[in-house]
Amino acid sequence: MISFFVFAQSVKTIGECTITYTIKIANDTGSATKTLYIKGKKICAEIESPSFAQTLIYDNKTNEAVIWRTLNGEKYLSTFNAAQWKEKNKEWEGMKVKLTSESKMILGYNCKKAVATTKGGKNFIIYYTTTLAPSASENPYEFKNIPGIVLEYESETNEGKSIVFKATNINFSPVPAAKFEIPTSGYRILGAP
Predict the structure, then answer these.
(1) Residue closest to 175 by CA, chosen among 46, 49, 48
(2) pTM assigned to the model
(3) Cα distance from N-terminal residue to C-terminal residue, the chain
(4) pLDDT for 43-75, tens place per residue?
(5) Half-sphere exposure of residue 157, counting CA atoms within 13 Å on the CB side?
(6) How far apart are CA 69 and CA 49, in angstroms?
(7) HEC secondary structure over the chain
(8) N or C terminus of the chain with fewer C-beta within 10 Å?
(9) What's the average model confidence in pLDDT over 4-22?
(10) Closest C-alpha among 31, 19, 35, 39 to residue 107
(11) What are the beta bridge partners of residue 42?
């Protein structure tokens, strides 16, 4: 009974945090980063590379999302209601997740390995910690059935190159509300793809 109580207390629900990831694409020497902000039921994910920048804000309460991008000096913004966001993420429908007994340490957290396979046969290797429980999912479609915070994952680019996102830092300080402000000018508004 005591050991169960201690184990149950070891899971920490995270209502606010910032996780920084490095992004490595096979045979690419460029550097890119992803910064994930969790604040209550919202997430903000920023990806930055020398030629591309993208910010995604997703609201887990409403299932609505906004994405803005800068590519080759052009700026675009798209908004998605719940139905449009579900449609945009339809490649994840029917995804099978196999939780394995393999694990490794990332940033001092024991991370378990999962292998996710889409209906199209694409495999993703995911390492997640069950020690931290997020208050909001980064992507409830892509990371469905992953019981914790994802600290590393590997997938493929559209060109078939391996791409690895690996957490390099977790900061539990409060996230500024400004991270969730949507630009009101300077972007070409696109319909939801």
Answers:
(1) 46
(2) 0.88
(3) 52
(4) 999 999 888 899 999 999 999 999 999 988 899
(5) 12
(6) 12
(7) CHHHHHHHHCCEEECEEEEEEEEEECCCCCCEEEEEEEECCEEEEEEEECCEEEEEEEECCCCEEEEEEEECCEEEEEEECHHHHHHHCHHHCCCEEEEEEEEEEECCEEEEEEEEECCCCCEEEEEEECCEEECCCCCCCCCCCCCCEEEEEEEECCCCCEEEEEEEEEECCCCCHHHHCCCCCCCEEECCC
(8) N
(9) 75
(10) 19
(11) 39, 59
Question: What is the rounded distance in angstroms from the CA atom of residue 43 to the CA atom of residue 139?
Answer: 9
Identify the residue whose tokens are 């339809």: 90
Instruction: Give me the amino acid identity at 113.
Output: K
**Tokens 């045979």 sit on residue:** 27
* Residue 65 contacts residue 79 (beta carbons within 8 Å): yes
pLDDT tens for 80-108 read 999 999 999 998 888 899 999 999 999 99
- Of 133, 121, 123, 165, residue with least CA distance to 25: 165
- Give Cβ neighbours of residue 108 (< 8 Å, ≥ 6 apart): none
The length of the chain in residues reads: 193
